[in-house]
Design goal:
The chain has about 550 residues and is an alpha/beta fold. It has a single domain, classed as Alkaline Phosphatase, subunit A (3-Layer(aba) Sandwich). The protein has 22 helices and 17 strands. The strands form 4 sheets. An 8-stranded mixed β-sheet has the order 5-4-6-1-7-11-2-12, with helices on both faces. A hairpin with a 5-residue loop joins strand 8 and strand 9.
Length: about 550
């Protein structure tokens, strides 16, 4: 299979089959900047403005007062690659096909950055997630400047500026070559079962963390993003900016500042056993992927919750400083701000840790805040069920670059005339390298928890139906049982039947005209064989 080589720092032309230019419509200047801030792995239940009793997010809570607060927003997927692909294409995972660590986005599927670049936006990314910014999987397409904060080299802002000098050009070339090398190494490891397993061991994973700075540098990413939005170096006069920012602070492992650990997880300092547990937890990447054999010890779950809160509070401080800098420079009200998460995190619930294997609320019920100074999206609570994939359509509508189809899915249109009728879907296929690892190390546990089966869920009318494989169903009342503690599938057969029919219709629906081809994968015959087994290839 052909895998298109992409230049991380330059915005290449759209593929010939793309119809993005057709969607461009004239709008009155000046058009707003658009800032998409993805708080990677951030649970919705950790915001005081959305009901959390612990003050982990005072700056975001204050910001949310001026936002449309979508209380029933759901991610289309439970981990970064398919979730970001949905944010960037507006498609569900079964349409864009980005289920694997080796997936490559179809060149025939225009991305949000490509569409906005065609509409005249300067497109810039400040990314701390290596699966989005380092791996060469097509998610960087369309960005005029894509800056990674993961790895041995941290890039500098605006490297794609046309005013760059000769030294900057050579620096860009070197970093492109380094990025390509890292991508090749990561792809090689992803294709090798033995290397993948070795990289997840407690011996080697801490070395990966230290050498590659896997969580990036949020402070620098936000500083560089603020500099672009305020100083606008390298932009033409009046040119708007699309700014994508990914922050990884609440992703495992947990290393929050001591003062915040003392505040949110003081037991860590009082109990040597808890300190030992956290050291093991932080170095055991396999433990983040596999279901637990038994219920997590209450003390351990309390520690993980406290450490997660400390990480959330640290992120809130950084984001608060970012907001204040923009406000002081008069840049805050120039932009449509979208704040969301790609997915959440399990912290021991249902014998699960991490975000690999479920479609429960801990993973797919995500925060979604939109601050629109123009007033198209009014501040206040929105209880309508929506999919976060519709941020694609909302951004294009804001930019004046939307088709009629896009405008119909603009989140400003939610209500009685919503074409999606207040429903959202989510899909989960465990990446094949993780499947193989689980099946080799813990085959009985992996089969019992459905690690080798596809999951699909629908949220509608206050209920969620989850289907695992062909015949396992769970039905939950989201409004009265948000923690999904009671399966109502047998108790409410009529509701289950209605949602089951919607799942079947979703599974056989035709793709939109944008999704003319799905993602490709590597040429690994084992990968292709397993995709056929799962029904994703003929």
């Amino acid at each position: 299979m052909h895998v298109r080589k992409l230049n991380i720092f330059s915005n290449g032309p759209l593929p010939s089959s793309s119809c993005a230019a057709i969607y461009l419509s004239p709008v009155a200047a000046p058009r707003p900047d658009i800032v998409l801030l993805v708080l990677d792995t951030r649970r919705i239940d950790r915001f005081a403005c959305l009901g959390y009793p612990t003050r982990t997010s005072p700056h975001l809570d204050a910001f949310a007062e001026d936002c449309a607060r979508f209380r029933m927003a759901f991610s289309p997927a439970q981990w970064s690659v398919p979730a970001h692909a949905s944010l960037f294409t507006g498609e569900y995972p079964s349409a864009h096909g980005m289920f694997q660590t080796t997936s490559v986005l179809s060149p025939h599927l225009p991305t949000l950055a490509e569409r906005l670049s065609q509409a005249g936006y300067f497109t810039a990314a400040f990314c701390n997630n290596p699966l989005v910014g380092v791996v060469n999987n097509g998610l960087r397409r369309g960005f005029s400047s894509f800056l990674n904060y993961v790895g041995l080299i941290t890039t500098h802002p605006n490297q794609a500026s046309p005013r760059s000098g000769l030294v900057d050009k050579y620096r860009q070339w070197f970093k492109r070559q380094f990025s390509a090398l890292v991508s090749e190494i990561q792809a090689f490891v992803a294709r090798s079962e033995r290397l993948t397993e070795l990289s997840f061991t407690p011996l080697f994973f801490p070395l990966w963390q230290a050498a590659l700075s896997l969580k990036g540098n949020s402070r620098r990413a936000l500083e560089d993003a603020a500099r672009l939005l305020i100083k606008r170096e390298g932009l033409t006069k009046g040119q708007p900016v699309f700014c994508f920012i990914n922050l990884m602070d609440t992703h495992m492992p947990y290393h929050a500042p001591r003062r915040l650990v003392e505040r949110f997880a003081p037991q860590y300092f009082a109990d040597p056993e808890l300190r030992s547990y956290l050291r093991r937890f932080n170095s055991d990447a396999f433990g983040w992927l596999a279901p637990l054999e038994d219920d997590i010890a209450p003390a351990h779950q309390a520690l993980l919750n406290g450490m997660y809160d400390a990480q959330a509070a640290w992120q809130d401080e950084l984001v608060g400083a970012f907001f204040e800098r923009l406000r002081a420079a008069g840049a805050l009200d120039r932009a449509l701000f979208i704040i969301t998460a790609d997915h959440g995190e399990h912290l021991g619930e249902r014998q699960l840790v991490g975000h690999t294997i479920s479609l429960y609320n801990e993973l797919i019920h995500v925060p979604l805040l939109i601050r629109d100074p123009a007033g198209r999206l009014a501040a206040g609570d929105v209880d309508h069920v929506v999919s976060s994939r519709r941020l694609f359509h909302t951004a294009l509508t804001t930019a004046g670059a939307a088709s009629d189809e896009d405008r119909a899915l603009d989140l400003a249109q939610v209500g009685p005339n919503d074409p999606e009728q207040g429903e959202a879907f989510a899909e989960a296929v465990l990446p094949l390298n993780v499947q193989r690892l689980l099946m080799r190390r813990k085959p009985e546990l992996a089969r019992r928890r459905g690690a080798d089966r596809r999951r699909i869920a629908i949220c509608r009318d206050g209920y969620k139906l989850i289907q695992t494989g062909a015949d396992h169903f769970e039905l939950y009342d989201l409004r009265n049982d948000p923690t999904e503690s009671r399966n109502l599938y047998d108790a409410l057969p009529e509701q289950a039947a209605v949602l089951g029919e919607r799942l079947r219709a979703f599974a056989v629906r035709p793709s939109s005209h944008r999704a003319t081809e799905q993602a490709t994968t590597s040429d690994d015959p084992l990968v292709l064989s397993r995709l056929r087994d799962l029904g994703y290839l003929e």
